[in-house]
Amino acid sequence: MRILVLNGSPRTKGNTKRMVEAFQKGAESAGHQVNVVDVCRKKIAGCLACEYCHTKGNGVCVQKDDMQEVYSLLMEADMLVIASPIYYHGISGQLKCTIDRFYSAAYPKKPRSLKKAAMILSSGDPQMYDGAMFSYRGDFLEYLGLEDMGVFTAYGAENGSASKLKELESFGRTLK
């Protein structure tokens, strides 16, 4: 299976990145191809709402930036993993810009091979996930009709813990 992970953390050694790495290790050990895009290290502008992609562009965004890499990986992915620290009850702004740009490639219908989704979230408090979960359920599970493979959260002392990293590695290893 081809898996695209969009990591929305700006921290190169932070909790979200460590959880992504654990998942990637497990998934690759099971023979899956995993591409991780650290969106905070990319130059990805927000959607302009110009509708070019749905008129003259025939599904292609007018903006030419690092999103082109994401589009290419998205078109080949069987599974999408959204990973982010929680900022103000939602995903990071950089990841939100990336997801908003899915408008040209994933709306009104998803890429042909994309079937599954999962989410990895890190926060300081267990009551911070509502905004991210609303987007995940509405945008990916309901609108795009992706199969929910799970939501993995870590807060406080769970962040970076051996048990949480083991859970994510096991999840990656058991994907079918």
Average pLDDT, to the nearest integer? Answer: 96
As a whole number of angstroms, the C-alpha radius of gyration is: 15 Å
Major sheet strand order: 2-1-3-4-5
Q: Return residue spans where pLDDT drops below 50 for at least 5 consecutive residues.
A: none
SS field, number of helical segments: 6
Percentage beta strand: 15-25%
Biggest beta-sheet profile = 5 strands, parallel
- The N- and C-terminal alpha carbons lie at a distance of 8 Å
Derived from helix and strand composition plus strand pairing, the structural class reads alpha/beta
> How much helical structure, as a percent, in the residues?
25-40%
What does this structure look like?
The model has no long low-confidence stretch (mean pLDDT 96). The chain contains 6 helices and 5 strands, in the order E-H-E-H-E-H-H-E-H-E-H. The chain has 176 residues and is of the alpha/beta class.
Quick overview of this protein structure:
This protein is of the alpha/beta class. 37% of the residues lie in helices and 20% in strands.
